[in-house]
Amino acid sequence: MKVRVKAFARFREILGSDLPIEVPDGATMATVLAALRDRAGDRGTAIFDEGGALQAHVILMRNGKRVKRGDLDTLAEGDEIAIFPPVAGG
Amino acid sequence: MKVRVKAFARFREILGSDLPIEVPDGATMATVLAALRDRAGDRGTAIFDEGGALQAHVILMRNGKRVKRGDLDTLAEGDEIAIFPPVAGG
Amino acid sequence: MISITRDVIDTGTMIEAAKRPGMGALVTFCGVVRDDGVERMELEVYEEVAVRELETIRDEAMRKYPIESVDIVHRVGSLFVGETILLVIVGAGHRKEAFAASEYIIDRLKRTVPIWKKEFGRDGEERWVPGEPGDQTSSPPPG
Amino acid sequence: MISITRDVIDTGTMIEAAKRPGMGALVTFCGVVRDDGVERMELEVYEEVAVRELETIRDEAMRKYPIESVDIVHRVGSLFVGETILLVIVGAGHRKEAFAASEYIIDRLKRTVPIWKKEFGRDGEERWVPGEPGDQTSSPPPG
């Protein structure tokens, strides 16, 4: 199935702004993060630490709602995942 | 000699807005207040109490500067005396 | 700019004119004629003293807070519900100071600037708005 | 009105439109591009989430303070020094509540609305403005 990943600010510069990702049925956030880690490669240090875990300040959303990084819920076809650094509006 | 008295708000309605008052040389604020008391007559209760003293909240200025009600300085030709109730701008 | 005016206050133009390159925050206060059963208001001013007092308040605010500009326009004459009576604009590098200085200026102004308001109610009643208690005019000591 | 816009913000028009008969005070905050050696800025937004979050902030402010209206317009896209990034207008019967609610709204907005800024310096440097520390987005619990 397909999910869409939106990345913003510095993370958009690394990952692209809006990417469709193909994941197997039953995939969780971890599946998506693994795909993003591969995609980012050497440029991914702003997002992932050396062990491949998310950096402390990275924020994740699923369909516009904040989710914990260890969230084990299975994703659904068409889900919108967002990944971004701390906000700086105003 | 002549001094000018400016009255504002409710006091203007009682006394008039800008009145020349003739006072003898060596006159003080007390001389002017006595003249105003006469002028106000029965309508003067917003300004003067029954004994003829200024009500607690009345403000006096001489040439744009706040003066105490018991000020004993002698006035000068052309002085501008202002008398008004508590301000309410903004 | 410090001014007493009889004309409608153009808030948008004043805000744009207040901007300077070092500012990150502008806080604007508009005091307007509120409908408390009131149809219109008449404001009266001791103009020379009011202008001087507004300048004193601006100078004090600029000494007291790290801000870049203060503009104050106070309208007098006849005003209807919804019209702007008072406009205060404070420009600063950062917002905290701009907010603090705005509140300081308005609190001070209400106690010391010789301006008075008479309300004309829809019921035909006329009423002088009582002044806020306090020092009343910054000049010399209280009487 | 709550909105995210790519156009110049017309502050004066917005303030006049915010007025209601029961208001005696309108407090307006303009956040502008400050010249810290910066020539321009690019602002980026997660729009659907930002609009929903601004609406949440407005609703919270209206519950928390006795105020009559909240308008928030946040600009995104490319902005030069002196241009308004953020406009917040709070209308209330009295000034204290309007000031308190304005500060609450801005503090909250800076922590939780998904908008980011990149500065372009006159020296050719590009720099993402770091976010303010804090909860980050009001939705569910931190990760």
Q: Mind explaining what this structure looks like?
A:
The complex is a heterotetramer, with two copies of chain A (90 residues) and two copies of chain C (143 residues). In chain A, 20% of the residues lie in helices and 24% in strands. Chain A is built from two helices and five strands, in the order E-H-E-H-E-E-E. Chain A has helices at residues 10-15, 29-40; strands spanning 2-7, 18-22, 59-62, 65-66, 80-84. A five-stranded mixed β-sheet of chain A has the order 2-1-5-3-4. The model of chain A has no long low-confidence stretch (mean pLDDT 94). With 143 residues, chain C is α+β, with helices and mostly antiparallel strands. Chain C has three helices and eight strands, in the order βαββαβββαββ. In chain C, the strands form two sheets. In chain C, strands 1-4-6-2 form a four-stranded mixed β-sheet, sandwiched between helices. Chain C has a four-stranded antiparallel β-sheet with strand order 5-3-7-8, with no helix packed on it. The N and C termini of chain C lie far apart (32 Å). Classes of the chains: A alpha+beta (90), C alpha+beta (143). Chains in contact: A-D, B-C, C-D. Chain B binds chain C through residues 6, 8-10, 12, 57, 59-61, 64-71, 82, 84-90, and chain C through 31, 43-46, 48-50, 52, 74, 85-86, 106, 109-118, 128-133, 136-137, 139-143.
